[in-house]
Amino acid sequence: MLPEKVTIDFVLLADFAQTVNGKLTVVGAGWNILNAVEYPHQLPFGIGLGFLVPWAETNKKHAFTFVIHQSEGMELAKGGGEFEVGRGAGIPSGMTQRVVIAVSGQVQVPESGTYEIIVAAAEDEKRAIFEAMPAKR
After folding, report:
1. Domains in the chain: how many in total?
2. Is the entire prediction scored with pTM above 0.85?
3. Does any domain span residue 115?
């Protein structure tokens, strides 16, 4: 069944992410364990996001937000933005379209533990979780 509202298709945690011409490029995607020799640790990251936009929601602006925090609550970073997709020539009537967005930056991970990236758009929410662990010396 096709979605009636904007939904989050995927959230990928990566080392780097970028979008060019509607395509998402990610490097080092899908990890969920951070091994650092010591904490706090400066972590470069990328987040690849995919949103599904149903036909009735095209040609409208849609907002998204993300937050990175410790599972215990300490917020490390947050942000967001807007996206809009039109009904391009030749697209079949009623087609759901995917919009891809990349977020890249750095965040300081203060200590070992569990961390979450929560992405929200419209009434949908998805999470990516990673565990920060001490690396063996």
Report:
1. 1
2. yes
3. yes
